[in-house]
Design a protein that fits this description.
This protein has a single domain (about 5-225), classed as TIM Barrel, CATH 3.20.20.10. About 40% of the residues lie in helices and about 15% in strands. It is built from 9 helices and 8 strands.
């Protein structure tokens, strides 16, 4: 299929999944994950109406941002972020979805103050016991939110999670359910609106929609098989 056909197919699948879950498709956005695909592919996706793209690696985001500096793309970082990469995130990204520790929040705050800007962020929550998964333990999140609310540079919009890598759909569903319940708890306890739940990828977005996801991070279903990582 062409890129246009793949995007149309995914949009239709998302619409149907929302319909099955009794949800308004307008409540669920698709965030294309363009990691490992070149800037020319991103430009093709822009022609299909996309303006936000997610990257795992800061260096790859920077390269594409420079190659596409004639466009109005909003770049989103979804991968683990080292503090020594904060400067580039502040310069090029409109959102960070992998805020997972106080050290990182402090480093971002310092750079953002210097730049005179704010950054939209999501707190990454570890919703499974897999050692390969990163994120903050759910029980640590409420106190973390209380601390970072003092940082005017960070606009905390909600949570992101990566579900367990398993064929057991109920275990995947519980990951999403756990984060949604945590979001509801934090909203009740803190009185802060946390409207964004970034949950679900190419293989599990239907389950994520059922459990309240508002944003799907989709890569291979949109772009096809990924090139070899550079």
């Amino acid at each position: 299929m062409s890129l246009a056909e793949q995007f149309a197919a995914v949009r239709e699948q998302v619409r149907l999944a929302c319909e099955c879950a009794g949800r308004d498709p307008q409540q669920v956005s698709i965030l294309p994950v363009s990691k490992t695909f070149g800037h020319e592919v991103v430009r093709q996706a822009m022609a299909l109406g996309e303006r936000r793209f997610a990257e795992n690696r800061v260096q790859e985001m920077k390269e594409k941002a420079l190659a596409l500096n004639d466009s109005s793309i909003e770049w989103v970082i979804i991968g683990y972020l080292q503090t020594n990469k904060v400067k580039e995130v502040v310069r090029y990204a409109s959102q960070l979805q992998s805020l997972d520790r106080l050290e990182l929040a402090q480093a971002l705050d310092k750079r953002l103050l210097q730049a005179g800007r704010q950054l939209d962020v999501l707190v990454q929550v570890k919703s499974s016991s897999e050692e390969s998964k990163t994120g903050m333990a759910p029980e640590q999140v409420p106190s973390f939110l209380k601390t970072v609310r003092d940082y005017d540079t960070l606009n905390v919009q909600g949570f992101m999670t990566v579900a367990e890598n398993t064929d057991d759909q109920e275990r995947v569903r519980r990951c999403f359910e756990r984060v949604r319940q945590l979001r509801d708890q934090c909203q009740d306890e803190l009185g802060d609106a946390l409207p964004v739940l970034s949950m679900g990828m190419s293989a599990d977005f239907a389950l994520a929609i059922q459990e309240g996801s508002t944003q799907l991070r989709i890569g291979s279903a949109l772009f096809g098989q990924r090139p070899a990582v550079r």
